[in-house]
TrEMBL record:
Pfam families: DUF58. It comes from Litorihabitans aurantiacus. Keywords: Membrane, Transmembrane, Transmembrane helix. This is DUF58 domain-containing protein. It comes from the Bacteria.
Length: 426
């Protein structure tokens, strides 16, 4: 008896199953087609304003009622609204053949400085385009510019100024071109650029040179780290590949017959730490107290940069970037008051833990903490550090008071800070 063939083992397909499979595949293809069509139609539907949808609903209802009731007036209303909607849709026809550039003259300004930018729109198409409208979000507001009809290759430029009356990080852009009908039923928007940030830095004043906060190495705490270039000479050693040839000691090399290089003890610059309270409880009702405290601490930080000190900046909520002056001012610009976070005393404990070699520590608070609370903050800071507590009170007489372990400055005006800083060192 011969073995059964392999074809005889295959199951016979059921006609109903094949039909259901084809129907299922057809349903999936139809669903994909509908989804693709919906993705194409959704942006177009978004061009219509709520007023346009209301007008369309009223037009349909009026035409249906006119057909049922035979009212000519309702029919005229329905066809009239339909004609208005059709005419408005004509403004959406065509594309936006634009090349748009957004530029700010400066990305960093100080409060009160003039911030200017410009928008350049060029028609990159091969035919004239209709007038349109350019919109530019600036912070929480929005500016609008009328864009005239542009011939092929023609360019149009608009300049704008940004108010800088307060410290802020202002998002400028993105630039959008808007085309719509005069009634405002439809609106087609195309975005062209990315947003750019404008930093409005706090006001600062230039302080006098400070000799307080001596380098710890000069106070008897020497560094154990060795370096190839510094001030304090340590010893000579043999030359190694990669050493700077300017460090070669030629006289010793001639005497020993081997190249010898100088080795130095690494010195450390004195470090300034600024600590700012962001807690509303530390400030009075005057919102300018917080701004004045930020300006005072920024002034101390910039003076430390000029004196080539190391800088660290913390708040009761975060550690700020202080690698460069611009980074520090950018961080101070973005600081905001808010509930939560540490108390300033807890922040001072963190400063004592993280920056034990700090030579000068400047605290920024408002009018609420009294002398007792300020002394409690200073008591947890590193011994030997000069502690300055700036209590911002706009309008109050500026006064300097020496307390055990710190100097307290009641600052009424930023212009008084250089004089108060000089008196604190006497």
């Amino acid at each position: 008896m011969s073995a059964p063939s392999s074809t005889s083992r295959r199951p016979t397909p059921v006609a109903g199953t094949t039909t259901l499979g084809r129907l299922f595949r057809g349903t999936r293809a139809t669903r994909s087609t509908l989804q693709a069509g919906l993705r194409q139609v959704t942006p177009v539907l978004g061009w219509a304003s709520p007023t346009a949808w209301v007008a369309l609903a009223v037009a349909v209802a009026a035409l249906v009622a006119a057909h049922q009731l035979g009212w000519v007036e309702l029919a005229a209303l329905g066809w009239g609204l339909g004609a208005v909607l059709l005419a408005a849709s004509a403004f959406m026809i065509g594309r936006h053949p634009y090349e748009v550039r957004l530029r700010l003259r400066e990305h960093r300004v100080t409060v009160g400085d003039r911030a200017v930018g410009g928008i350049t729109v060029r028609n990159v198409g091969d035919r004239r385009v209709l007038p349109a409208r350019i919109e530019l979000p600036v912070g929480a507001g929005r500016a609008g510019f009328a864009l005239p009809s542009l011939a092929a290759g023609q360019e149009h430029e608009d300049l704008f100024a940004i108010p800088t009356s307060r410290r802020a990080v202002i998002s400028v852009g993105p630039v959008s071109s808007v085309r719509g009908d005069p009634v405002g039923l439809v609106r087609r928007t195309v975005t062209w650029t990315k947003p750019q940030d404008l930093y409005v830095h706090p006001r600062t004043v230039r302080l006098t040179s400070s000799h307080s906060g001596l380098v710890h190495d000069l106070e008897g705490r020497e560094s154990q780290d060795l370096t190839a270039s510094d001030l304090t000479f340590h010893a000579l050693r043999e030359y190694a590949p990669g050493d700077d040839r300017r460090s070669i000691h030629w006289r010793s090399s001639a005497r020993t017959g081997t190249l010898m290089v100088r080795q130095f003890v690494e010195t450390r610059r004195s470090q300034l730490v600024i600590a700012l309270s962001c807690r509303p409880e530390d400030y009075g009702k005057d919102a300018e107290e917080f701004e004045l405290a930020i300006s005072a601490l920024g002034s101390y930080a910039l003076q430390a940069v000029r004196e080539q000190r190391d800088i660290a900046a913390v708040t009761t909520r975060e550690t700020l970037r202080a690698s460069t002056p611009d980074a520090l001012l950018d961080s101070l610009t973005a600081v905001e008051q808010g509930a939560g976070g540490q108390t300033l005393t807890e922040t001072c404990r963190a400063v004592a833990r993280d920056y034990p070699r700090a030579a000068i520590i400047v605290l920024g608070v408002g009018s609420e903490p009294g002398p007792r609370e300020v002394r409690a903050m200073a008591s947890v800071l590193p011994l030997g550090a000069q502690v300055i507590a700036v209590r911002a009170q706009p309008g109050a007489p500026t006064a300097v008071r020496r307390l055990p372990g710190l100097t307290s400055i009641v600052l009424g005006d930023l212009a008084d800070l250089p004089r108060a800083q000089h008196r604190s060192e006497l």
